[in-house]
Write a structure and sequence with these properties.
alpha+beta, 368 residues, six-stranded mixed beta sheet, 11 strands, 33% helix, five-stranded mixed beta sheet, globular
């Protein structure tokens, strides 16, 4: 009985591990990109069971243990870069000119959550230059507008507002000027994104893109095509930019997925979590099922001052705080280069964008 059970569990785990290698876009497959940390833990537990159960024959024990080790190593190779065991991809700053720094707080508020005071308390304590909210509707706009109205206490006088009741509302409250700003619907007609030039206190301007594509799920899109296409066209749009670039938001994808890695390859942007930690922002209420859904990527013009996950405020997401410095190359530590796309990556990207009939030309280029 026990040998049969271990064999069945091994087959199921192998399926969960191998299916994401395919390019099948259905949500039931793509969802397996998410729990790689949890799957690695399950492989470790299965390995221990394989070695501990006495009813197994020597040959079966070795076979199951080898498969478990292979599964554990495979899952680990995706998640280890998001630990301190791996070199940092984004440089740590060695200069602290506050006028050339920008502090961003990205928060998926969860539309049904009405604990706005807790989020405002985080804003007051951390003093971000830019607050980006996702899933924010009219109710949230009314509560957050105090940031704009009370200029003495908060000073967020530059805003972009798109309140929606479909879980894809989006707001930007900024202390720094926003230029050439727009709200656009890149792939789906009810899923907005925001684009602007952000002017730092030094006068330097940064191209910023705020995204929240819809995920593949049984309640959203059956496939990941819409999400993947939005990430691909934004990545291609910023790839040739000479301006400093920041892309942030809830991408409804994990840091280690094939799609996010493709985004990094195509865009040339850096991930400050590599070598620093996972900063799992979802699910705030289920500790054993957490992964990094909220992201910030930046161009090589920046170095990292601070990355931190904030405390829960009633949403199913934790807020993500990222502070960057616009830094000359000589004022940073040596780090890794961004991964580069090969011909297969480019072909996959083109196919996905063509399937949704979108291209990088659809993405605004603020300050162009």
């Amino acid at each position: 009985m026990i040998p049969t059970l271990l064999g069945v569990l091994t087959l199921l785990m192998a399926a969960f591990t191998l299916l994401p290698l395919t390019r099948i876009r259905h949500w039931s497959v793509r969802i397996m990109d998410f729990p790689r940390l949890q799957l690695a833990a399950l492989w470790a537990m299965l390995l221990i069971a394989d070695l501990a159960v006495s009813e197994l024959s020597f040959g079966l024990r070795v076979s199951l243990a080898v498969i478990a080790v292979a599964g554990l190593v495979y899952q680990a190779h995706w998640i280890v870069p998001y630990t301190r065991l791996f070199p940092c991809e984004s440089a740590r700053t060695r200069q602290h000119d506050r006028q050339r720094q920008v502090r961003l707080l990205t928060a998926n508020v969860l539309t049904s959550n009405h604990d706005s005071d807790k989020l405002l308390a985080i804003v007051e304590r951390e003093q971000p230059d830019v607050l980006v909210t996702l899933e924010s509707d009219d109710w949230w706009q009314q509560r957050l507008d105090v940031l704009e109205a009370d200029s003495k206490q908060y000073g967020y006088t530059h805003t972009l507002k798109c309140p929606l009741d479909n879980l894809y509302g989006m707001h930007v409250y900024s202390r720094l000027p926003l230029h050439d700003a727009s709200i656009d619907y890149l792939v789906e007609e009810d899923v907005p994104s925001m684009h602007a030039q952000l002017e730092l206190a030094s006068g330097d301007r940064v191209r910023v893109h705020f995204l929240h594509p819809a995920p593949p799920s049984p309640t959203e899109n059956d496939e990941s095509s819409e999400r993947d296409a939005e990430l691909i066209i934004v990545a291609r749009s910023v790839a040739d930019s000479q301006q400093p670039v920041i892309v942030t938001g809830d991408l409804n994808d994990v840091a280690w997925s094939r799609t996010t890695r493709l985004f990094r390859k195509l865009s040339g942007l850096l991930d400050p979590r590599v070598g620093r930690g996972m900063f799992n922002t979802f699910h705030a209420n289920i500790p054993l099922l957490r992964w990094p859904l909220d992201h910030l990527f930046h161009s090589e013009h920046f170095s990292v001052v601070r990355v931190a996950r904030m405390e829960a405020f009633g949403s199913d997401h934790f807020p993500l705080l990222t502070e960057l410095a616009l830094t000359p190359a000589q004022d940073t530590d040596e780090t890794l280069d961004a991964p580069e796309p090969d011909a297969e990556d480019q072909a996959e990207a083109s196919e996905t964008a063509n399937d949704e009939n979108v291209s990088q030309q659809d993405v605004p280029k603020p300050g162009r």
